[in-house]
Structures are given as structure tokens and as C-alpha cells.
Amino acid sequence: MHPMSLQQRIEKAGNEGRIALIPFITAGFPEPESFVRIVRELDASGADIIEIGVPFSDPVADGPVVEEASRRALAAGVDLDWTLRQLADLQLEAGLVLMGYYNPFLQYGLERLAQDAAGAGVQGCIVPDLPLDEDGPLRTALVPHKLDLIALVGPNTDDERMRAYAAVASGYVYAVSVMGTTGVRRELPMEAAQTVRRARAVFSLPVALGFGIHRPEQILAMSTPPHAVVFGSALLRHLAAGGTAGEFMEPWTKRAF
Amino acid sequence: MKKGRFGDFGGQFVPELLMPPLWELERACETIFSSPAFQQELTGLLRDFAGRPTPLTRCDTLSQELGFSLWLKREDLVHTGAHKMNNTLGQALLAKHMGKRKLIAETGAGQHGVATAAAAAKLGMACTIYMGAVDVQRQASNVSRMKLFGAELVPVDSGTRTLKDAINEALRAWIVEQADTHYCFGTAAGPHPFPTLVRDLQTVIGRETREQAVRQFSRLPDAVLACVGGGSNAIGMFHPFASDPEAAKVRLIGIEAGGTGEPGCYNSAPLNLGSPGVLHGQFSMLLQTGDGQIEPSHSVSAGLDYPGVGPEHAWLHSTGRAEYHVVTDASALRAFEILSRREGIIPALESSHALAFVLDKPSAFAEGSHVVVNLSGRGDKDLDIASKHLSLLQGDAACTP
Hints:
The structure holds 2 protein chains of 2 kinds.
Chain A: H1 6-15, E1 20-26, H2 32-44, E2 49-54, H3 64-75, H4 80-87, E3 95-100, H5 102-108, H6 110-119, E4 122-126, H7 136-142, E5 148-149, E6 151-153, H8 159-166, E7 173-176, H9 190-202, E8 207-210, H10 216-220, E9 228-231, H11 233-240, H12 245-253
Chain B: E1 5-6, E2 9-13, H1 19-33, H2 36-50, E3 56-58, H3 60-66, E4 69-74, H4 84-97, E5 102-107, H5 111-123, E6 126-132, H6 133-138, H7 140-148, E7 152-156, H8 163-177, E8 181-183, H9 194-202, H10 204-217, E9 223-227, H11 232-242, E10 251-257, H12 270-273, E11 275-279, E12 281-286, H13 311-319, E13 322-327, H14 329-343, H15 349-360, E14 370-375, H16 383-390
Parallel strand pairs in B: 4-14, 5-6, 5-8, 6-7, 9-10, 9-14, 10-13
Antiparallel strand pairs in B: 1-2, 2-12, 3-4, 11-12
Helix pairs in contact in B: 2-4, 4-5, 4-9, 5-7, 9-11, 10-11, 14-15
């Protein structure tokens, strides 16, 4: 039996009357030894998709929390090889997505990445420094292995540009909530709701909202909610402070959005 | 060639949120920048504020010893002490015409930060400079100059806390502030259109050199040399020669910083010792590990201390039109001392690398030839660093071994 696609996973949540949950965790965080246990815990606590961050020395789209997690992981010797080995054979309920900067993927080899990621059960990639104009080679490598290349759009992505992404996108659309980096804001700005509304109108794919998401009330306040939410920095902060993945997921799962 | 590409090199590898400001800048390059009125205004600023044209000075003493004519293009005489001002005045003026009220910039050694802060002060713009916390410590006098010009200084504490991290932080700030802010990028690297824009602003170096060569020694130089960190002074010198078939015989020689030169030491020589990859918005040559993490760089000259290089150099290297060599810290320091003693000019440690290649390898140039070194900056800023090392070299200022 084929596993559900990323799109189907989010649509299934919608059919059940809820917003899909997409936690992000940096590979090897907080320690390489506990990483797999936490991924399993996220899976058991209701994650629909889990984004695994591939650490990079120069994460230009990320705020201080993800950057620090990346630095720690690199210092502990985490790389793409190690990450894919951990993910293989996990047999998770949730779908898996790799989120990483382009250079580590490029040096690994795009064909090899597609093959090994698919082999490890990964269903998509997010590359925050690879806009539409440069993503041809990676997209070409991913397609034969049925991996989605997730489109990122933001408040300053106009409808015409969104349509250009929509023409090639698959999986889901990642809507960036703010003009900024990950994890910095406490409150969602007005423009987040507009971005979600515009993305929902342009794309036939489900829309996931990320950057600065840390509590359900932020989403409940939106008149046009996203189909899914992504939380990264808030989860990493919670784990770094000694909290468990299950505790973090609880307020998100006990609510019927 | 594809827009924004130099062969395979270049491109726009940035978060989607940075694409709109890059397009806006691209349009401004095509419309405002290329207009005669803008160029006239910029030429006036370069003349009356920055002090252009700069002289082409013959090194009489050294030329006699070397057996060929050694000339210096005197970018050390540009206001604030380096070629950086050619770029910052142009970008600041462009930003002002685009309706931006603020400049942000990264800086390593502090020269680009100082030049940006001075341009902002001159044109009445706000200015914030991002600088690695390590560099803030080791370049204290430039920090004071930036503050004196009214710039806000943000020390960057992430990563290696040097230039590459300052660029990351400035890019992050530009995502947030793009509506009213221009990112005044410091070298001919980064995402398109910066490599082309910065090059076009620095080609004044090569254009003047050509005219002065013809006027002062009645022909084109046999070779032009420049140090290469990000590569803006070098591409500014090379491009007017590289783009003209009539100058096909002019040798273009770029010099990268080799650090201490010990096997396995950190260096700043991605063209010679690196491999292709993506950093700071561009595909170019990089110092990196096998799995694509960026390696720390090192050079005694902070201005060359960068793990990447502009894409046009990567292309000129791959086609063979320009040649690139590596010079170590010790050679550069020796050249620093020799030029000071023999010619009365203190070169920046960056420019000393280019000079050192000529002094170390005079056999690379034919007798009677004309060799131009781009003296990209003055060395007053380097006296502290040089004095730590030069006691070892005292009395050893002979230029031939």
C-alpha cells in the first residue's frame, strides 16, 4: 500500500475538521541520542507531517533559535548522511519532510539526495534559499522519486508570482507569516491573514502557515485559517528548556479548530 | 549568457522574501543607473567628494631593481582610504533615487562600513552597519569612524562572528526592512544584480588605468594585478580589459590570501583551494567541507578574510582569461614594509598581497614590461597588526631574495 501523499495528509486533517500539525525539529536536536525518541513522540502526539531541519552553518532565513540548534547539531557531528540514516525504518504515521539550505543538498548530490531521501521515507523537501528561478535542477531530481518541492511564499509574494509557483508546486504551500526570519515575533501580524487568504485563492494545494507560530489562539483569531500550521522555534525552545514533545503538542491536539 | 550568470556562476539563491527587493534593484539598475543624468551626478560626487581620478604612480626605485616598470593605481587616495567608496557612493545615490531613506551594510575589516557610513552622511541617509563581534574588537578605529559618521553599529554574535555572519545578519535585516532600506552590498558578489552593479561601479578603476597607461607610457599595460577577497577591486580593474578584444594580451592576475601557508591551515583562497557551491545568494567557488558546511577563512588582512568570491572571478578563472595565485601572510607583510621604505607609500595589507606576487616572482614579468598593481587601499589601518609581525622582518626590506 502506498503511503498518503503530503497533500492527502493535510486534506485528511481537514476532512476530520482540524488543522494539520507540522512540527519542525532540527536533526540531532537537542542531542543526537534523543533525536529519534523525540521524533517518535511528535509522531505519537498527533503530528501530521514532521519537518526535519538539516543543519547548515549559515542559515540566512532563520532566527536565533533555529540557528543555535543548527550550530549545536553541527558541533555534535550531525550531517545529511546521519540524518537520513536516523529517519530510515522509523515507520511513522506522520509524513516526513527535509528542510535544509541548498548547499549541503548540492554537495551531497541532487540525484543521490532524491534517491536516499525517498529510501528513508521522506516525501518532500523545503529549501529556503532556493526560489523558483533556481529550483529547476532540484525539482528535476525529485520528480522521479515522487518527492514534493514545497513552495515558500510570503507577504510580499504577489499573486502573479504565486501563480508561477502554483504552476509547478506540489505537496503543500508554505506561507511565511511575517517579513522576517523564523521564531522572532510574539504576535502574528495582519499581513499573515492576507497571505493565507491570497495563497488559498491562488493554489489548489493546502496552505501551511509558519514563522512565529507558538500557540493555538494565534490561529483561532484568523477568519480564513490555513490548512496546516508549522511550528519550529517554539518547539525547540520548549525542548531546550527540558519540556517534552508531548506536552508541547497537547494544546494543539486537544482543540478542535 | 543567462541574466545574472557568469558561465555557470552567479544566480539568485535567496529566500523568496528577498526576490522583490532584488527585482526592484534590478529595475533601478536598468532605468535610473544607466541614465546620463545619474551617471553625471555620480561622476561629480566621485570627483568632488571622493577625489577621483586617482593617479597612476610609477615606483621608480623598485622598477630599477626589478627590471620592469611597476605602476600603482592609487585607490589608497580615494576618500576614506580605499576603493570601497566608488561602490558606496554609487549605491547610496541609486538608493536615494529609488526613494530609500536608509542604508544597511555588512563589514569585515570596517572599510566598507566606513565608506557606507560616509556616503550615507554625505547624502543625508540613515545607516546601520552589521559587523562580526570579533571584527568589532580587532578594528576598533574603524568602528569609531563609522559611529562618528552617524551610523548605528550592530555587533553580530552568531556563527564565526566575522564577515560571513555579518552578511547573514544584514540579509535578515533586509528581509524585514526592505520597504524603505537599501542593502549596500560591499563586494562584487552575492545575489544578482549585486555582482554586476558593484562591478560596474568599480570599473572606474580599470577605465582610468587604461587611459593613464596610454597617456603615461603610450600603450596598454602588459599585466594588471589586484588582490581578491570578494573581488570588487580586482573585477573593477580587470573588467575593462577582460571585456575588450583589443586588450586580450593584457595579463589579468588576481591574488588570493593564503593565510599562514601551512598545510591544512585556514586560508581565504576559494578559487585556488575551494570548490563550487552556494553561499550568500550566489553559486561560486567556496571554502567548504565535503558535506557543504562553510569553513572559516583566515588572512592577516581582514579585508580578504572571506570564504567565498564573486562569481565573475570564478568564471574568469574557469575560462582562463584571468590567472589567480596565492600569497601568504608573511609575503604580504614583507611587501607592506618594502613599499613603505622604498616608495614612501603604506599599502593596505590586502593590496600588499598583489604587490608581494610581483616582488616575489619578478621572473613572471618580461624585462621592460609595464606592470600595474591596484593599490586598493592605504595601510594606516593595519599598523597595529603589522607592528606585531614586522619586528621579525626589520632590516629585511630587499625585494629580491
